[in-house]
Amino acid sequence: MEQWDAATAGTLVRASYKTGEYIGETVEVSPSGKIAVKILAVVKHPTQGDLHNPMEADVAFFHQRRALAYQEIALMPAHTVKPYTGTVPEYRDSLLTALEAQREELQGTVRWAQRCLQELEALAREY
Questions:
Q1: What is the pLDDT of residues 60-117, one digit of tens each?
Q2: pTM to 2 decimals?
Q3: Mind giving me the DSSP string for the chain?
């Protein structure tokens, strides 16, 4: 397998930060071993809500998570940082695409839940 060096400043990478995924370039490796990455594009928008209680709406604090900003530098766990060789999309376009993808995924979850409720109602009538 080919070696790559994330410590080389300017290396393009795909990395995860909390619940989001980003394309960026490495800035440096911190003393803790985390890799400082300058954000260039959003691949996956961060998940909303309480991560300790997924799919729960009635929690004490429902977190709103923003995507990391263009050229924001974040310390990424080294195991989440992988080389990236594709074209880097424009930040705002990538942000809106990632946001819309998450909205569509959640709408699918809503439709699934509604269908489950319909089927349970049908079963309740039979029982």
A1: 889 999 999 999 999 999 999 999 999 999 999 999 999 999 999 999 999 999 999 9
A2: 0.86
A3: -----TTSTT-EEEEEETTEEEEEEEEEE-TTS-EEEEEEEEEEPPPPS-TTSTT-SSSS-----PPPPTT-EEEE-GGG-EE--SPPPPHHHHHHHHHHHHHHHHHHHHHHHHHHHHHHHHHHHH-
